[in-house]
Design goal:
Layout (H helix, E strand, L loop, with lengths): L3 E6 L7 H15 L2 E5 L2 H6 L5 E3 L27 H6 L3 H15 L3 E6 L1 H9 L8 E6 L15 H21 L3 E6 L6 H10 L3 E3 L3 E2 L2 H10 L5 E6 L11 H11 L4 E5 L11 H19 L5 E6 L2 E6 H7 L1 E4 L7 E4 L7 H8 L7 E2 L1
Parallel strand pairs: 1-2, 1-4, 4-5, 5-11, 6-9, 6-10, 7-9
Antiparallel strand pairs: 2-3, 8-15, 11-12, 13-14
The structure holds 6-O-phosphono-beta-D-fructofuranose.
């Protein structure tokens, strides 16, 4: 049966979105389905009429689907979106408008490519998607989505941060200084952990493991080297100190006469050519999402578990994570995943002499 599919990218972008979009277009063409893209995420869906682009005829140059960003765009800062609507006390009207836009578009299914915030909202305000099949594809550079071993964008972010750290380690040596590098990742330490291990950092500090600054200093001094990399997650804190995490650690090192500089690669971590691993994942998730639509599934998320592509229900996704308050929407919870205490990389890092902290939280 000919179907009409809508796709949308929401939340912070990451590399790999264009590959998923391209693969969804390829898969729809194969099935002779129509496919439209919602532009600017929920901003575009809120617009009247909704901002859409016909994707049935390929809009991509073949060579560009590996580039970072989203050809559909993810939305503007500060316009009408879930946060702004909640802030203005107009969430219910906002949700109704999204629901009406989807109805007007006459879609059979919507593929929502989003992070844990977007997926949690899709679960919580599920009525928005009533009357159509909702299939979500997990993307985030933070790897903080429960029930899937991989998320689109994480591998490329690890690659970007590792490249950046490696370049800095070269000049750290020539100036006999340490670089404290701050990794993104929101509340989850996965990006710092993976990139730190990838470059053989001397220390990796993440929110999931308690650390002691005096022991970090001791570790650096005992290394008998005068240069190296300290990888710090943006989510760590030190009681009684304020400011950016990398700056806090830098000040502690300076106080112990360890020459150092801080470095923030910020959104460069979110860009970069999509790695082969993320492109393969994009292909797997696009295929899984389209098959889920064929099987009449709804309210599901694609997932990779122990090498197997599958779907899991949005409610299982939501229930599996640790629930934290959405910082921007009162009363809404987000389902989060963190580095688990038994994560094999924690043990490997410790065994390989990397200072990773004292005790798993
Ligand atoms: O969730 C993705 C992410 O890049 C986080 O790692 C980071 O904390 C945040 O988004 C940055 O958001 P913004 O682009 O709004 O500065």
């Amino acid at each position: 049966m000919r179907k009409k599919i809508g796709i949308m990218t929401t939340g912070g972008d990451c590399s790999g979105l264009n590959t998923v979009i391209q693969r969804l277009i390829d898969g729809c063409r194969l099935r002779k389905w129509d496919i439209i893209g919602i532009q600017d995420g929920t901003d575009g869906l809120y617009a009247n009429p909704a901002k859409t682009i016909d994707l049935t005829n390929d809009v991509f140059q073949f060579a560009s689907s590996h580039l970072a960003g989203s050809i559909l765009s993810n939305g503007h800062d500060g316009v009408m979106n879930f946060e702004a609507a909640a802030h203005a006390g107009k969430l219910s009207a906002f949700n109704k408008r999204l629901q009406k836009s989807l109805k007007d578009l006459n879609l059979d299914a919507m593929v929502l490519i989003g992070g844990n915030g977007s997926l949690s909202l899709a679960h919580t305000y599920n009525e928005i998607y009533s009357g159509l099949q909702l299939v979500c594809i997990p993307k985030t550079m933070d790897l903080d989505i429960p029930l899937t071993d991989k998320t689109i964008g994480f591998d490329t972010a690890v690659q970007q941060l590792s490249y950046y750290a490696e370049q800095l380690s070269l000049i750290a040596r020539s100036h006999h200084r340490w670089f404290v590098i701050q990794a993104m990742g929101r509340a989850c330490g996965s990006l710092a952990l993976h990139a730190g291990v990838a470059v053989g950092a001397d220390a990796i500090l993440i929110p999931e493991v308690k650390f002691d600054v005096d022991n970090l200093v001791k570790h650096i001094k005992q290394s008998k080297r005068d240069y190296g990399i300290i990888m710090v997650s943006e989510a760590i804190s030190i009681r009684g100190h304020s400011g950016k995490p990398a700056d806090m650690i830098s000040r502690a090192l300076s106080a112990a006469n360890i020459p150092n500089r801080t470095s923030f690669s910020e959104h460069l971590q979110r860009t970069g050519d999509t790695t082969a691993s993320d492109r393969i994942l994009a292909m797997g998730f696009a295929d899984t999402a389209l098959k889920a639509i064929e099987n009449n599934e709804t309210n599901v998320m694609t997932a990779l578990q122990n090498g197997e592509y599958k779907t899991v229900s949005l409610s299982d996704f939501f229930n599996a994570g640790r629930k934290v308050k959405d910082p921007n929407i009162v009363g809404v919870m987000t389902s989060n995943r963190y580095v688990e205490p038994d994560d094999v990389l924690l043990q490997i890092a410790t065994d390989m002499g990397i200072y990773i902290g004292e005790k798993r939280k």
